[in-house]
What does this fold into?
Amino acid sequence: MTTLVDLVEGGASRTRSGKAAVRAGERGETELTYAGLLAGARGIASMLHRTGIGRGDRVGLWMDKSPASVQAILAILFAGAAYVPLDPRSPWRRCRAICLDCGMSALVADRPHLQALPDLLEGWSPRLLLADAGLEEALSSVARLPAGRPEVRTLDEAAASPVARDLPRPGADDLAYILYTSGSTGTPKGVVHTHRSGVAFTTWILERFGIREDDVFSSHAPFHFDLSISDLYASLGAGATVHLIGATEGMLAAYLVRQVPLWGITVWYSVPSILMAMIDAGGLERTGFGRVRTLFFAGEVFPTPQLRRLRRALPGVGLFNLFGPTETNVCTYYEVPPDLPDDWTAPISIGRACEHMETFVLDDEGRTVGEGVEGTLWARGDNLMQGYWNDAERTAASLRPDPRGRPGTAYCTGDRVVLQADGNYEFRGRRDHMIKVRGHRVELGEVECALVAHPEVLEAVAIPLPDGLAGHRIVAAVVARAGLRPQPGELRAFCAQRLPIYMVPETVEVREAFPRTSTGKADRQALLRGWTAGEGS
Amino acid sequence: MSIESDLQAFIASEVVADGASGVGLEEPLVRSGRIDSMGLLQILGFVQQRYGVDLSATGGPSDFETVASLAAAIRRSRGDR
It folds into this structure.
């Protein structure tokens, strides 16, 4: 298997149920069989190909989760192009910044997003727009565009179009997908993965955890989140079924506790936040989470007391902490032991390197350090990204010649870790201003850039307040321009138009001035102390 | 005050960041990105406290789609008792 296309075609040859992707709703189920999924994806791919879109081109996906969006993703890969999933719940301004950054040749959008198309396409246009809606609706949405209209087709029409005989097959080193994450300079940064890195990671999941054709894999994370890679390709690569969970369903803990057994899910993967909410909702012990046999969590630290409750509620289920930034897919993992005794209060480990990856720790002077010494985690191996899109400088800063002098490239994760006596790493935090808010990766700089974009704001600092044992909440402090007094509510509303909701500061304090460090920078530590002291009183 | 306007007022003032622009009756709450899991919890708590209805125990995703569907779910739950 060298590409994601090979992987999915292999899965299609192994399926027994025939079911590829399912989305359950209270108004019935939508599902795609492997035969339908592949036939439609090849049709759409052929239309992309006839429009001249192929190898190396970027195609945006602005859709909610559905079997149709899975088909669109595969179609983009089948055409040899790379897909760029836009957060369907992010403000259009942020999505537009991503479109402009990666220069999209085509865009696939569903009905709810067609309305905002004139905003998204301000000042640029893809060559082709594929709409998951009626043609009239799609045409009327582009009729409002100021300039440079794309060719418009419906997804149904594309899926039914004849398969091109000369449809190229992508190669292992061709781009497969770009996942945009929060960027410290205010614009999201694109993490570029090739078929090679996607396949390396997926194959590890398939083999290490024995994913089989009778599995039903959950898809809880949205497609722009890296958890979706194994959700989609480990399931489809095994000939199993992927069960798509929409945004609202995915937040309803008690509903999920009731439904997961009914959906027949066998492999669950999500951030810890929703699992913690599901424990609190009750009922997990009773249902045992249905047929779930393997449970992965990633994206943030799972606080030990809550993990203990999950461990005891699901005694027979394999629980795994998968660790690694989007840049590595996953680089280390840890199997939670069969019991977490009451006196186990230490944070849960991030484990050791995936079998096909290599990890090591360097101190601040660049020396390799061993057991018991804190340092920065580095990773190397086929899971690594190709680089950041359109940002050679940032790529060179993080993907470097192996600092130990060995041939090859290694990636500096920026995570502070300590190697324990048992060979597992303990996570200690970050070297920079990247934090996690309920599993979402947030660069504080992106929040600050949004605030400073407000005409009345001179300077802004986003402050991460500890939330629970490991995650953060965001508040902010700003200094206004001379003589102006912006309202905190107005500043939050301004942010909400530019940032996804988890990045919008919960409160904004308007100050006369910031405390300063000796070098004149805003003193982040002093601001944080001020907040925590104020909240405690 | 109707259940709808009560919910709209609460969501606009307490839950969303840009409440000044109001919250539409049929506006998708989660799908639009205006509300996340924390906001959903706030709404559940409000409904419980104000109407004595525990939507988390019985509700499904379609109940949480819009203000209109929330109000309908509250009425249904009260009528069932």
Remarks:
- Chain A is about 30% helix and 25% strand.
- Residues 233 and 440 of chain A are 22 Å apart (CA to CA).
